[in-house]
Amino acid sequence: MRTPLIAANFKMNKNLDEAFNYFNELKKLTADTKNVEIVVATPHLLLYPLTQSVKNTNIQLSAQNVHWEDSGAFTAETSPKTLKAIGINYTILGHSERRKMFCETDETVNKRIKNALKNNLKIIFCIGESLDQRENNETIKVITEQVKKGLKSVSKEEMNNISIAYEPIWAIGTGKTATPEQAQEVHKKIREILNDIYGNEISQKTRILYGGSVKPNNIKDLISQNDIDGALVGGASLKAESFFEIISQSSK
Ligand code: 13P
Questions:
Q1: What is the mean pLDDT of residues 112-140?
Q2: What does the mean pLDDT of the chain come to?
Q3: Is there a catalytic annotation at residue 67?
Q4: Which residue, 33, 111, 190, 228, is the most exposed by fewest CB within 10 angstroms?
């Protein structure tokens, strides 16, 4: 049985005051939440002060990216080692906005994954096809390549720290969600790829999240699919109440 993972991706939104208010509200709302893992990826500048706010709660903080080295001449990058030292245990990697706007490739994502694992971070590894690729029937080919290249030389044991987020690019921030059936089809395929690489146990254990215009009114149908184990939520996570509505409908 996979515990659902519901993660918020704030992207480049909220200042410190707004974030504190948000966490005060979210903490109250989720005080009795059980059987759902809650993660919030805030802008990196806010992570350290917010560690105080989430202490002794069921909310975990996450980074949105980390570098493939622990230190060095990499202006404006984030070291996974520095994150661990301030008590952060999660990072998103390979988000399509990083791939599209900041030249990330399967190879750089793989390097970042390897170093995040070395530093004992848990990872939400994002993959997803563009609208053109979907319309050209290339979805499965693209997903297969992203999974295989992104997880290159990641061991079975290390897979315990990885969740995969399937985020079709055409559904991100557009209000167009993949239908539960469309999402399930790709999630099932991702599990088959994991089965080919790592065998049945790992493929059954690994959580596969859906992301792309997840809202309180569509989470129920998505999460009820066999291979959808949670969500990575952008816009609808920015209000504590709507993020909580998603969380509260997600225990399986
Ligand atoms: P939206 O929920 O705003 O579509 O964003 C999805 C996303 O990119 C989460 O990482």
A1: 97
A2: 97
A3: no
A4: 111
